[in-house]
Every structure is written in structure tokens, then in C-alpha cells.
Amino acid sequence: MLNIKVKSLRTKVLILFTLSTIIPIAFITIIIISISNKSLDNSIYHQQQEIINRVADRIYLSMDYTRNLVSSLARQNYQKMSELKIISTFTDILKLNPDIMEIVLMNARGQEVVKISSKNGKCVSQKNLMNRKKREEFYEAKNKNYYISPVLFSALRLPYQIISCRGNGNVLLVKLNLENIWELISEIEIGKRGYAFVVDNTGILIAHPHKERVIAHTDFANLSIVKNFLNHRKKTSWEIYNDEKGERVASLYGTIPELNWAVIAQLPYSEVRKPAKEMIFQSVLWSIVFSGLFLFLGIKFVSGLLNPLAKLRNFVGKISEGKFDTRIKINSGDEIEELANAFNSMAESLRKLEELRQDLISMVVHDLKSPLSGVIGSIDYLLSTGKDIKEQKEIISIIKNSVDSLLGIIQNLLDISRMEEDKLELRKENIELKTFLQGTAEQFTLLTQVENKQFSVNYEGAIPNLRIDSQIIKRVLNNLLHNSLCHTTSHGKIWLNIKNINNNTIQFEVEDNGSGVPEEYKTKIFEKFVQVERKRAHLRTGTGLGLTFCKMAIELHGGKIWVESPCQPEGAGSKFSFTLPIDN
Amino acid sequence: MKKILIADDERNICTLLSHVLINHKYQTETASNGNDALAKAKKILPDLIILDIMMPHLDGLQVLEVLKSTPATKNIPVLMCTEKTLIGDIEKAMSLGAAGYIIKPFDINTVLKKVKQILGEI
Lengths: 584, 122
Fold this sequence. Notes:
Helix content of chain A is 51%, strand content 20%.
């Protein structure tokens, strides 16, 4: 079916269909992908950002809480409290705040006075009291009222912080375990494999879902996201880099106020792209499905269009081979069906024309052959035996008549074709009508006498001279009279009436009491090729082209010709009339 | 004297046949169409009818059919006359009961011979 020719309609329509399907779908797909891609990225980005903010807030809040706790504890008047009271107060605090590992009360010289540690839920009053006079946590708090240490690592390599605060003549210090941040971090989920971690202001890892990394004291200062943080470079999009395992990740960070730490959310890049990838896959899949569907419809449509066209082509091919009986049937209900119907009526017209043409040929051939039969028969007879002069003359006059009639037929044919091509020029002359008719009538009377028929000529009104082509009008009259002769039985009657109508028209009537003209043929007999008796007998009426000739000749003279014939009873005869204008 | 009816719409052929047959001591009558031929056949009851097939109004075959179905004319022998191109008509005419046929253009002596054969004179 798909025989590909670039110029074929099928290929053209298919290409058009393909393009008109694929281009918009591809266009829309690309737009959808780019828009959704952005919004997807955005939503993931903001999700990450939100997590970071939440984590940062919680860390900050817990820090803030501890600081307030420390500052309120520091403001107590410890000089008036017994040591036992202090220990019990601190113990209560430790029990209420599991993050606090140790509370230390120092005097104004940095000497530890009370030191309570919490270990595995048990509070122990430490006896190894030391002097922190030269340590930051003491003099910073003493001078500045308040101190928060950087992240420190215990002997077990666990990170902690020291917060100290100056009170009434003494300094209070707590060691804050940062494990609660670990717990917070381990609970955070970003996508499927993403996680968050916290680094301090030097890039040292404080909290990570994998505790061992923190214990290992990992320095992330060289990680590009941490570098951004350390250099205070804030980006509005992800930082994309390969993490320590070599996997491509998308990260962003958020700063924890005051502490100057960073919370970093890190998501494998493949996971970031996954929804977009899935969407692209879906879009492409559906594009292909729709393109396929439209292409299929296109092929159906084109076939629906082209199959009837192919049918039409075959049909026209048959017509040009001369098979005019062929008909085509297309039920598409559209213009092609109309076209097919138009072709059918064309074929029908051609068939009729062809029939007429064949009729005409056989008619002409027959009309020419009949008189020739007479000529040949006569000549044969003349040649066969010795005839006396009188008989020879009689036979020769038969030959003469036959040849005359042959000539008449040929003349009719020639004149018809010349009149059809407007090439016949009338040789009009002034004719005295009565004299002119007398000659014609005399010749015809002889013929009617031979066949025992009656013929009479009647005049009505004044008969003026006419300006006509006498040769042509004479042949018109002869044609009509001979028709009447052919269509009457013996003892039939034929009349030629000439009437003056209102002094401007002469009407000629050739009337007989013969078999008449059937109603349906009254106009058709003047048409070329159509004769009263169809089938075979029509070939012998000799009227077909004769009447056509009469009609054309009379109309060329500016007159009219018609026939009147009552159909019933049979034999009521017919009356052929024609008019000629007087003043031409 | 035997009577022969000649029916042919070509007047000159009627005239020629008539002339020749008269010379051979037959009495002739002519008709120029089917109706005329039928009317004359019924009226004069000829001994032989020479009937052309192609004629106006009633063609020769129709005339033949009527003649053969009318008791008065049933036994009149009919010699059909037609053109070579319409040979199918001849077969039909023979099946309808025609006594013989001649093909146009004819040799007048052949016609004479046929006429005499049918009339049983040779």
C-alpha cells in the first residue's frame, strides 16, 4: 500500500499529517517539561530549605533555652546557700535536662566549688575540683558576662559545648552534650537517600546520621557547600558536587544564628532529577502514543481519500478505452461521491453520444447504399441481355432517379455540416413563388401518380415574391413531400398549402393522411440522428437527416418549422409547417 | 398471369423490379412502407411477395409476422430482401416462414431465378 513516491498525494498528506501531529505535541511536551522541571526543582529546593530552617531553629532554640537556664542559675545567691542545697538544686537541673552533662559552680577566682556530673542518668558530685582561672570559659564569662565555647570533643570523642555565665560573685558553667542534635539529625529525612548534617564554624562535623563520622572528627572544610558557608557565599540554588563517596549530590545550607554553625541538606542529584526524568519519560511516551494514533488516523483518512481516487482513475481509464457502459460506485458521502456521480453522468452522456454516432453512421451508410442498390441492379440488368432502345431508356431513367436521390442525400449531409459550422452562405434571389412551386409540384405529381396517390397544391391569400435561396427551399419542400410519400399507403392524399399570414409571413404546409408522428417524437424528429422508428426501422425512414436539414435551412432563412399530428386514430396523418418572412 | 407484390421504401428498386418482372410476364404492385404492403397484400392476395426488411412504420419482419398469422395470407410465399449487414434478420425471417431471401445489392437475374423457383416454374 505504501509505495513511496515523493510527489504522490499519499506521501504528501502523510508528511503533512505527521508534521502537524508531531510538531505541536513535541512543542507542548518541551514547554510542559521545562515548566514542570522548574517547578519540581523549586518544590524540592524549598522542601530542603524548610527542613534546614526547622533543624536550625530547633538547634538554636535548644541552645537558647540552655543559655537562659544557665544565666538564671548563675544569678542565684550561692553564698547564702549550703553546699548540700546547691548540690540538690544542680542535681534536679541535671535530671530535668539530660543534655546537660555537668554543672560547675566556680568562685570569683576560678576555683571550682561544686561540680555535679551526670553519667548514665546518675548524678555524681565530683571531688577533683580544679581551677579554671586561666581558661576561656572562666575569664570570658567573668569579663563579658557570658561565654559559649566552640565545639569540643570529649575523651570519647563526643562533641560537647561549654556555656558559662557570671553570677553574683561567682561563675556558673555547664557542659552541654550535643547528642540531642544528632538525634534530631538522624530523624530528618530528605527524599529517599538524602540527609542533613551540621558543621561548626570551622567546618568540623558536629552531627551526622552516621555517628561514627562525627566521632571520627571529620573535617568538611573542603566540601564545596561547606566552603560556601565558610566564605559566606549564599546561593539561591543547589550546590552540586561529588560527595565523599563520589556520588553526585545537590546541597544547600542554612546558618544557625549566634552559634554560626551550618545545617546542610544533601540529596543525591539522581533523586532530584528523578521526578523530572519520570515526567519526561511520560511525556515522550504519550507523545509517541498520540503521534502514532494520529498517524494511524491519517493513514486511514488518506486511504479513504485515495482509494476512491484510484477507483476513479481506473474508471476514467475504462472510459477512455471506450467502455462507456462502465459505472462507478463510491459511497463516501462527500465531494468524491459527487465527483463519481458526475463521472457516471458523463459516461452516460458519452454512451448516448456513442450510440447516436453509431446510429448516424449506419443510417448514413444505409441511406447511401439503398439508391446504389438500384443503380447496381439496373446496370446489371442492362448489361445482361440485349434490350431494345425503349427499355434501355426506361432502365437508365431509373438509374438517373437513383443517382439523383443519392445526390440529394449527400447534399443534405454536406449542407448540415456546413450549416453547423456556419459556413453555408445563402444565395438569396427574388423568386416568384408560384412559378417556383409549379416546377416542384409538377415533378412530385409524377411520382404520386406512379404510386396511385393524390397530390394537390392550394394557395390562400396574395402570394408575393420571396427573397430566398431557391435551391435550398426546393430541397426542403422535396424532403417534406418525399416523407409524406413514404408514410402514406396507396391512394393516400398529400396536400401542399401556401398561406399568406398577415402579409409578413408565408406559411407552407405539407399535409398527408399517412401514419403520422408519435407525440414523443414531435420535437425530436428535427434533431440530428433521432428518427421516429428507433431500433432498425428508423434506418429506413430517410427522414432523420432530411428533417434536420429542413430545420436548419428554415431557421437560416429566419423562419420556423414544426409538425402537427394527432396521434389517434392511426393514419390521421401529419402536417409539417414552416414559415418564411416576406420582407427579407 | 401471376401477381407479385414488391414492398421496398427505395422507390427506384420497386420500379426496377417491377419493370423487369412485367417484362417477364408478371403482374406487379408496389408498396413503399410496411402499412401499405400489408394493406395491399390483403387486398390483392398476390402469388408472391418480395419484402424488404427495412421499411418505415412496420418493418419487413413485422409485416411477415402479420401475414403468416392471417389465414387469408398465410400461404402466400414471401421472398425477403435485405442487406448483407443484417444477416441475423434473415435467420429470423426464415424461422417466421419466409420462402427465401435475396441480399442487396442484388443481381436482377438471381432475383428472377428465385422468383421462378418459389412459384414452381422451374
